[in-house]
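User: Teach me something about this protein's shape.
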Amino acid sequence: MESINGEEISMEIIGVRPGDEIEIDNCSGNNMDLFVRAFASKHRVPCVGYELWRRKLELKEELKSLSRSDRAYLFRSKSREEIQACYIESKFIDITYTGDSLFESILDRLSSNNNPVRTLVIECTFLGLRNRSDDVAVAHERSHVHLDEIIANKEAFKNCENIVFVHMSNRYGIQSIISGFASKLPQVLIKRVIPALDAFAVRKLTQRSYDAAKSFIQSTSNTAVLCESWASCIAWEAKTCVQNATVT
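Assistant: First, the predicted structure itself:
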């Protein structure tokens, strides 16, 4: 990575394998533990995805009604093992990041894991807007995800609270990306989807494409096509990109 970026990376990089877990220091002082778990992914080169888990200890239901002083008295008379037995552990996934991957490995991961996912960050390289040049077969050949695969398996995302689309191909313009998602995504998905346009737009944005995207947002955000939060997010990202990009 240092040779690619042309600069030194001031961090220690440790390789991981599927199933490895890395504990993260908890600086918030609450009773939650954070850890990252790597999982197997399928791409043209060996790769993994990552899940950020939160592990929380909660008092058993029958003890929650006790006053603070009663709990303190109870715990003073118990060993450490007995105190631990007074709690139950709950876990949920804060963020799942798939990385570049075939859709089948993402589907396998979602199907085998019933834990709720607060935010799923999933690549969506191909959108199916250019006939056969970007169809599902091309996505499979290049080991990437196609939007039509996501739509066809929409029920697999039922436990995902938010879905962030990343890695859209440079072949699409901003207006095409926005209109493609808006026209193709079913309501069950579009209410939770946020397309990450910032890095893409900084490279590709022109005043004309920004005006077109803004016009599209204004024309659709008052209908059922785009939910208000998504339209606001796109408008904010597009505005930020215009401020940071060289407008031509």
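Now, about its shape. The longest helix spans residues 228-244. The radius of gyration is 22 Å. If you'd like, I can walk through any region in more detail.
User: That's plenty for now, thanks!
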